[in-house]
Amino acid sequence: MRLDPRISADYQFSSRLKLQAAYGRYHQFLTLITNEAFSGFDVWLTTADGVPPAWGDQFGLGLKYTPKRNYNVEVEVYYRTMRGLFELDPRIPDAAGLDYADLFRFGTGYAYGLEVLLEKTAGRFNGFIGYTYGNTRRKFENYNNSNFYPPKYDRTHDVNVVLNYNLSRKWMLTSVFSYATGQAYTEPLGRTRIRDPFGTLPTDPLTVGRVNASRLPDYHRLDLSATYYSTFFGLGDSELQIQIINAYSRRNIWFYNFELEENPPERSEVPLLPIIPSLSYTIYF
Amino acid sequence: MLKKTIPILLLITMSACEVYRQDDYAEQYVIESFLTAGETLPEVKLSRTIPLNQTYVFEEVAISDADIVIRLTAADGSASDVYTYTESSRRGIYTPDDQDARVISGRMYTLEITGLDRPGDRITSSAIVPLQFEIVSLNVDETVYQSDVQFEFNLTRSFFPGRQNVFIASSIALDPDSFPLTPFWADRDGEPNEYIQVSSGLINEGNYTVNEDNTIDLKYPWIGIAYYGPNRLDIYAVDDNIFDYYRSLQTQQGGGNISPGQIENVIWNVEGGIGLFGARAGVSADVFVKQQD
Questions:
Q1: A97 contacts in B (CB within 8 Å)?
Q2: Which of A204, A250, A275, B10 gives 20 to 30 Å between its CA and that of A8?
Q3: Percent of chain B at pLDDT exceeding 70
Q4: Residue-level pLDDT at B12
Q5: Are the beta carbons of B211 and B134 closer than 8 angstroms?
Q6: SS (HEC) of B51-92
Q7: Is B252 on the interface with A (CB under 8 A)?
Q8: CB within 8 Å: B194 and A75
Q9: What is the mean pLDDT of chain B?
Q10: In a domain, A262, yes or no
Q11: Are the Cβ atoms of A63 and B2 closer than 8 angstroms?
């Protein structure tokens, strides 16, 4: 059993301006192990003897401002600690015969950032612009020289712009633009060759830089859609949606692949999907 | 109020910006040497790393004129024997002056290299040789590949301080010109002669049985045999340096549960450089692998 105290307070400066402050302690009893190449491999791991829950304290301070009806401006800063982080140690070659706790590495971390939201909630033309400036850092014993590093999901800048335009009672046009700082990755810098005393072929280890200190190119994408609202023979509401995903066919990079069997190794880019048209029809019963 | 508060919040956040930049490539010394219990002292290879985009040729990165010694550590931590090395006719490859000295199992050896490019540079690495063990019995000396009867060794126990025994099984094809590759290896892209010696990867306690008489039963994995016909099967208990090197190398090159594109560093148990100064103790048996009908 864990105690998770939480407190929040509001101060109303005026009918349009509100200050909010909050503190909370959170425990996490699960950790997700995922492999982007095979979504079927996602595994939730639980706490157990020797693997206590991760926990942290979160502090937030925000302002909410309503300049006029249907318009909102929100600004929030946050800071959170992460303690007792646990994740599978990727260097365990074989789990057989090991105690559950021996499969993990344990660490700490912290995150802080600023979130800004400009929103128009109603009207023929509505939508929002959201911006997040964030920094997340973690560290694990004997990894990255026990120094803090940004996890793969760390995004320094993240922008989302969603615009809706009601062309008529039946038609709505939507555009969604996303921008994010490129994903962090660890860059190989050098290499050598070491004989394998157990095999004919030599091994070709790489020397790598600081963990996740390099970034893939920035990610950005525009999705456009037109939605037609109707009914399905009086049985229920329906939506016909024509969508163009990644409208300007930006080839965002998923990851760099290094062909280590080549001498010298060759780096290639593995991109995400190009422009994709999509048509969907949904019936609501 | 808003005009004042938002800039303050922005200032608080931005002032905490952190600079976390990638390192530039830095050349490092590389060592390579493997102690095997009961065998003569090994050669030591000394070289330097190259940037990722350059072609690797050992002769171009080999380091000459270094001063190399290997010290055998006594029980009290002092050096009981010191073995000096001299560069051979091959650049960057050093051989022991004492050609008769044998590697003693259960003992710690320390490699020390000085006289390098930059004055004051010094490379050291220590390895504990696992305790030598023996074959008590081998169930069969020939069997059909992937049949129910697998080569199974009954072994006395090795010992390595502070952890369970970890083995690597390795096979050497004794007549690769007369026999074909086994299916797993035949499906690979490489040339057949690249698979004359192959290994199983690391085998830990979950994969062998400890008997009441303190012997262990270890089934030789089929994946560790590349050729039909006569093979020499080796079972090696390995030290921490080899264990750390292979488990982290496997992760670096895409093994384990890491996402594509994630590149982990290798664990180098070397001060002043990188590489592998490993130790092992092993046993061997000659067997015959028959093809399935």
A1: 164, 204-207
A2: B10
A3: 91
A4: 56
A5: no
A6: ECCCCCCHHHHECCCCEEEEEEECCCCCEEEEEEEEECCCCC
A7: yes
A8: no
A9: 90
A10: yes
A11: yes
Q: Show residues of chain B in contact with A77, CB under 8 Å.
A: 9, 12-13
On chain B, the residues whose CB falls within 8 A of the CB of A92 are: 247, 256
Tell me the CA distances in angstroms from A203 to A30, A206, A268, B246, one per residue in order: 37, 10, 21, 10
- Contacts for B156 with CB less than 8 Å, ≥ 6 apart: B133, B134, B136, B214, B215
Answer yes or no: are the C-beta atoms of B29 and A44 closer than 8 Å: no
Judgement on whether residues A201 and A259 belong to the same structural domain of the protein = yes
Give the tens place of pLDDT for each residue, A131-170.
Answer: 999 999 999 988 888 899 999 889 999 999 999 999 999 9
Across all residues in chain A, what is the average pLDDT?
92
What residues in A contact B4, CB-CB < 8 Å?
Answer: none
Q: Each residue of A5-47: pLDDT tens digit?
A: 999 999 999 999 999 999 999 999 988 776 655 555 677 888 8
Nearest CA in chain B to A148: B20
CB proximity B260 to A under 8 Å: yes
Residues A100 and A54 in one domain: yes
A193 and A87 in a single domain? The answer is no
Q: Give residue A284's domain range.
A: 159-285
Tell which residue, A96, A107, A58, has the closest CA to residue A79. A58
Contacts of A19 in chain B (CB under 8 A): 5
Q: Does A88 touch chain B (CB under 8 A)?
A: yes
SS3 B107: coil
Task: For residues A11 and A58, state if they share a domain.
Answer: yes
Nearest by CB to B251, which of A90, A98, A198?
A90
Give me the number of domains chain A comprises: 2
Please report whether residue A11 resides in a domain. Answer: yes
A174-185 pLDDT tens trace: 999 999 999 999
Please check whether residue A2 lies inside any domain of the structure.
Answer: yes
Cross-chain CB nearest to A200 (options B53, B197, B267): B197
Contact A92, B255 (CB under 8 A): no
Interface of A with B in 98-157 (CB under 8 A): 98, 112-114, 133, 135, 137, 149-150, 152
Examine residue A154 and state whether it is found in any structural domain, yes or no: no
Helices (H) and strands (E) in chain B, counts: 4, 17
Mark which of A106, A131, A149 sits at the end of a domain: A149
In terms of domains, do A145 and A26 share one?
yes
Torsional class of B260: left (φ above 0), alpha (ψ -120 to 50), beta (otherwise): beta
Residues A163 and A145 in one domain: no
From A60-74, B207-221, B245-259, the region with the lowest mean pLDDT: B245-259
Identify the domain boundary among A149, A170, A197. A149
Check CB contact of B58 with chain A, cutoff 8 Å. Answer: yes
| Whether residue A131 sits in one domain with residue A7 | yes
Distance CA B268, CA B254 (A): 18
For residue B1, is pLDDT > 80?
no
- Do both A208 and A127 map to the same domain? no
